[in-house]
Amino acid sequence: MFRSWRSNIGNGFIDIGLEWIIKECCPHAEVIRVGTPRILPSVLEGTSWRTFLPRKLLPQSIREVLRRRLIMEAKIPFEYAQYIGNIDIVFVGGNIFTGYIDIFIPLLLRLKEKGSKIVLCGVGGDTYSSIEQKESRAFLAKLKPDIFISRDLISYQLYSNFGKYSWNGIDCAYFVSEAYQSIKIKKNYIVANFDNIKEPNIPNPENLPIVRTHHTYFIKREWVKQSNFFISDFPEDYLNMYANAQLIFTDRIHTSVVAKAYGRPYRFFGKTKRISVLERVEGKSLQKEKQEEIKFLKDALEEILK
Question: How far is 166 from 227, CA to CA, in rounded Å?
């Protein structure tokens, strides 16, 4: 099981959900958790002046070209996953069809050449730009995943034809409520989770405390000056916070996903193609979607392991 970097705590939600899926579908398997160390997004987005300026002033298409150039400059790291031994199945989930797709290509191809089955579970894209789609298709044409499960309709329509067995699935983070039993917090409060846009006016007729959560490790000075701020290194802390909130207001997709998973009312603010992750389950029974995906994956795993 490949885990994502934790510069964004939402990746932790995906990892928790994906591991539960694996254990549910392969109850007797030994699960080995490994990272993807080819290059860290923080190097490209958090500390490099070369990306900070284009990020603010240049169009997305140009930023993607510059980001690709920076990735190509990076040296190849030591990737120990290829030396673990015989790995029957490799699971990868989350937002992999991005400008960082080169992170996954060489190692996954080597593992497949050694006989590992490749399962892309709850995967999707970022901007779905023409560059992103072109590179993702080239990657999938080489990889030929044994199982492909999307996390939204857009990624299913674009990439499902590359999988031997494919399913119009949902984001792995929707499974956190199965994976983690949240504690009970004996306090009523509202959550305001805004990392990317200015916090809007929060309706609060009952005058409840507003807890302000943040998902990134790049902490801004103004955040710690907010009343009732909450920042943690651990995804489970946020799951506890969101599972007990009276209302949740956010510009984070995966905060909304977790709210939906635990049945908490939420409102999403923001403009992003990744809202398709939320639209995928609108008007549907989330529990039924989970059950159907698990059944498909169990059946598909049985077929590829024959």
Answer: 46
